[in-house]
Amino acid sequence: MLPNKNLVERILHAVCFEALALLICVPALTLLMDQPPLTMGLLTLAISLTATLWNMTYNTLFDRLQKRLGFKRTLWVRVWHTLGFEAGLMAVVLPMAAWWLSITLLEAFAMEVGLLLFFLPYAYVYNLVYDRLREAGWLRRRRMAA
After folding, report:
1. Torsion of CA 53, 55, 61, 65, to 10 degrees
2. Alpha carbon distance 126, 16 (integer Å)
3. Which has the closest alpha carbon to 114: 49, 15, 36, 32?
4. Which residues contact 85 (CB under 8 A, 6 or more apart)?
5. Mean pLDDT of the chain
6. pLDDT tens for residues 63-91?
7. Percentage of the chain exceeding pLDDT 70
8. Alpha carbon distance 79, 120 (integer Å)
9. What is the pTM of this model?
């Protein structure tokens, strides 16, 4: 069992997650959306910051709701939690992307669906690799200390 992450590690985890995602998404979106790299870089950075702030806000509110109502995080609760997060994020990101790129809301929605299809496996693989690297490093430090 690995120890809990402290605040510094949580920040490092989030920053590395977003930085790697930007390195992948900016070139891909530049090609797919036929936009200049700076335009797509600034937009993806804005989306990243928005997603990070929304994640912190949404999960804090969700945790308070769970504490107040006392429900368990079953599969369906997690599904609804995820859908609620994505719906809230889309409510902010779609108008922002449409305005930024001078595209329609439908085109912005298509871009967001593409990003979602990227981020689902990306988040899974990133966290799997991160956890394994973390565990290997922690186990090595623990063996050396013993």
Report:
1. 180
2. 10
3. 32
4. 54, 55, 58
5. 87
6. 899 899 998 888 899 889 888 998 999 99
7. 90
8. 13
9. 0.76
Q: How confident is the model at residue 1 (pLDDT cuts 50, 70, 90)?
A: very low
Tokens of 61: 């509110």
Q: Measured between alpha carbons, how far is 86 from 49 in angstroms, rounded to an integer?
A: 15
Output the six-digit token pair for 13.
């985890």
Cα 60 to Cα 54: distance, rounded to the nearest angstrom: 10
